[in-house]
Recover the amino acids of this structure.
């Protein structure tokens, strides 16, 4: 599979219009997100993408909110509908976590409604003390 796809951690490789369409139309956590908001979060985050080598077409995206030292929050992890079930989610998560490991990030947290099995393969588990965590806004 790695010869068919290319992983990138370069923000310039992200097709912003495509990512906006994916997230605002098809991601339960970002439906209706305005394009200017999507562009703003891309600008202040670490961004990752997966592309078909032959066509150059982007087929996956992830972004990470991080201080690049102590904390990271992977979010907006998305694989194109037609490319799901091919291992691209794992390729994307492999690349993201390898990049964060290279930075030396010590703590990575995420939220998912439906991909627990994927993330469990990478050592993610429910929080030991969830009652200590608090949220503000849409929680």
């Amino acid at each position: 599979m790695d010869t068919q796809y290319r992983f990138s951690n370069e923000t310039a490789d992200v097709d912003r219009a495509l990512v906006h369409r994916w997230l605002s139309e098809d991601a339960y956590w970002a439906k209706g997100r305005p394009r200017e908001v999507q562009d703003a979060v891309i600008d202040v985050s670490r961004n990752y993408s997966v592309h078909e080598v032959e066509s150059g077409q982007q087929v996956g995206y992830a972004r990470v909110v991080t201080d690049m030292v102590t904390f990271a929050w992977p979010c907006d992890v998305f694989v194109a509908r037609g490319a799901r079930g091919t291992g691209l989610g794992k390729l994307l998560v492999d690349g993201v976590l390898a990049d964060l490991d290279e930075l030396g990030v010590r703590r990575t947290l995420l939220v998912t409604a439906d991909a627990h099995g994927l993330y469990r393969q990478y050592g993610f588990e429910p929080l030991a003390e969830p009652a200590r965590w608090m949220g503000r806004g849409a929680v």
Strands lie at 5-8, 46-52, 58-66, 71-79, 107-108. Residues 88-103 form the longest helix (16 residues). Residues 96 and 136 are 26 Å apart (CA to CA).
